[in-house]
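F.,

This is the one I mentioned.
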């Protein structure tokens, strides 16, 4: 029994289309991991406990976000942005990427 040519072509194109969806080796969904310290927070931890002016006086290449107590924080994660959380007295309580 012979299959009609259009049916064979349709089957081959379907297989080729599915093969194009293959992610490849190590490309499974969710495998992307951003660099651990893309914003340089690890090198600035000595500023914790210092006034915010100690951070703002530095010439930093990355964007800086200052979070004050009770302030609403957006949830857009930017791996290269330095987020500085300050306490009620204006001292740096936490430095992290995001």
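My design for it:
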């Amino acid at each position: 029994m012979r299959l009609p040519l259009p049916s064979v072509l349709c089957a081959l194109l379907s297989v080729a289309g599915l093969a194009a969806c293959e992610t490849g080796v190590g490309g499974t969904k969710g495998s992307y991991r951003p660099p651990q310290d893309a914003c340089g927070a690890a090198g600035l931890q000595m500023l914790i406990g210092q006034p915010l002016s100690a951070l703002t006086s530095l010439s930093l290449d990355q964007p800086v976000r200052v979070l004050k107590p009770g302030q609403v924080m957006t949830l857009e994660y930017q791996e290269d942005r330095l987020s500085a959380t300050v306490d009620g007295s204006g001292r740096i309580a936490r430095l992290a990427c995001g």
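The mean pLDDT is 83.

Talk soon.
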